Amino acid sequence: MVLTMTATAEKQSNVLFEDQQPTPGDNWAELIEGLSREQKQINPKYFYDQKGSELFEQITLQHEYYPARAEKSILSQHASEIASYCGENCILIEPGSGSCEKVRLLLDKIQPAAYVPLDISADFLYQSAQKLGQEFPWLSIHAICADFSDQWQARTDLENGRRVIFYPGSTIGNMEPNRAQAFLSNLREWIGEDGSVLIGVDLQKSDHLLNAAYNDAKGVTAEFNLNVLNSINSLVNADFNADSFSHHAFYNRALKRIEMHLISQQAQTVTIGDNLIHFDKDEVLHTENSYKYSLESFTALSNAAGFTLEKSWLDEDKLFSVHYLSISKTSTLR
Ligand code: AVJ
Fold first, then answer.
1. Largest CB tally within 10 Å, which of 107, 142, 170, 248?
2. Whole-model pTM?
3. Measured in angstroms, how far is the CA atom of residue 290 from the centroid of ligand 1?
4. Mutational test site, ligand 1, from 290, 293, 321, max ligand atoms within 8 Å of CB
């Protein structure tokens, strides 16, 4: 374990920063593999370069993008009740904490013994943790720079206390349901027998609202989708031309997911290192799935992963859900 004690003026005494120095992984092989498939595809994690993260922030401000607004209203409206489920002196762990924005709505009520944000971006995590530490001087923050995207190693050596994993934003919707189940199941190794999970999940609803949320009038989501090509260009030295693709997003009602695609406007060949990737005119690159759940289907998913759904909170319009899961007593899963 590497403890980085970067000396800067704003360093807060209540913030411990630990850098596990995650390696970027084999992006190149993964990208080539996805782009060589019959149906070309990429992992949506590539959306989030600097520009992509900024565009996502912009998306959350668009009126059509209800998930951000609805989840915030749930968290602020039910913070006290959520805190009573979390119990006193818990260790609150947030994978993919980003700007630690949503947890701010809960901290005063939960009063955790420690908050443990985990993120892959070291600089961003460091800045976010310092800022949070300044705003919440009573809070012990143990920030860990790590990669949790695939198999993340459970940490058994954190601060003592009951562990609660906070996983907001319906990030779980990006995973295929069987991967989502495996992900939840893995969380049990992090939290032990007495731990719990507080998770935000987007709900199934009318095609109209869903399609609007991923096709905002200002075109921010379109720009976000197209930007993934620029992000890939700088990551693996490719030469995608974002101007020659167009955004396409729609709700696939049969599969209960939003699909985002980029459509090639012309026949073209893209170079990635020595690899040539050919696109026919109108050929489609699948960039993201965003699965939507019902209370029933998310309950079933949690149960299959060895959890009991203790409580669900919904916003007024029943657009979004936040769930409190505990480990099933009868669980025989490993
Ligand atoms: C952050 C993955 C939950 O699926 O709604 C927003 C990403 N993509 N607009 C989502 C996203 C297009 C977002 N998640």
1. 170
2. 0.93
3. 7
4. 290
